[in-house]
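Reopening this one. Same input as before:
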Amino acid sequence: MDVHLLDGTYELFRHHFALPSSIDSKGIEIAAVRGVLNSVVTMLDEGVTHIAVATDHTVDSFRNAMYAGYKTGEGLEEELFLQFAILEDALSSLGICVLAMTEYEADDAMASAARIAGIDERVARVHLCTPDKDLSQCVEGDRIVQVDRRRGEVRNADGVRAKFGVSPESIPDWLALTGDTADGFPGLKGWGAKSSAVVLEEYLHLENIPRDPSQWKVQVRSAVKLAETLDASFDDALLFRDLATLRYDAISSGVDDWVWTGPRSDFQSWCERLGLGRLPQRVESILKQR
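Same output, byte for byte:
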C-alpha cells in the first residue's frame, strides 16, 4: 500500500488565493473548502487508499513560547481562518482522517505520520503532499518522498540534495543558517542558501563545523566572516534549528486509521451546504470501483 499525507493548511491557502469567492447561505466564505474537498476526491478517484490530512486548527503552537518572533495568526484574513474548522468537518464527513493540530503544527503531524508509516512493513511508499521545504527533512531514499501536486514534482532524497544542496537530515541546520521568513526566524547574517549548502554538505550539522575557518575542507566566499558570525550567534543557530526540526510525537493514530472506506451519512448535507450537489454521486462511483 501507499500512504498519502496531505498538507491541508497549504491546500487551504492555495485554493483561497486561487479561486473566486463563494459564499454559503450563512454568509461565510467557503471557496477554499470547496476547492480542497474536490481536490481530495480527485486523489481518491486516482486510486489513493490510505490518506490523512493535517491542518493547523490553531495558528499558534509550542514554538511561539520558544521564540518571540515565531509566526502567529496576526494578519491572517478572517474569511480564511474561519474555513479551517469548516474544512476539517467537511473532510471528516467524507471519511478522511483529519489530523487537526493545536499544540503542534500540521508539519509536525505529517512528520509524525511519515515516521509511523515508514516503519510499517506493509507500506510501499509514503507521499508527503506539500511543497513546504520543512518537510524535506522527512524524506528517506525513494520510500518517503515529497510531492508538489501543483507542479507535478516528486522529490526523493536525491531530489532534496539537488534542490537545496544538502541531504534531508541537514535541512533543519540549513534552515537555521539561512532562516525561514514564512516561520518568522531570520537565520544568521551573511549565511545564504549557497554558502550554507556548501558547508553543510561537508559537515552535515552545525556542531561539526570547525570554529576556525582555516580548518574548513570547503571553499566558501567570506569564510572568515561567516565563521565569526556562526561563533558569535551559535546559540541562536541552535534555537533556529530546534524551531525548524519537526516533531515525531504529534499524533497517536496509525496507518489503519487512514484507510478510506467511504463517506459518513452527513456527507450529503455537507455537499449541499458547500454547493457541491454532484460530489456525493462522484464519491459513490469511486467507492463502487474499490
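So the earlier flakiness isn't reproducible anymore. For the record, Residues 2-165+247-288 form a domain with the Rossmann fold fold (CATH 3.40.50.1010).
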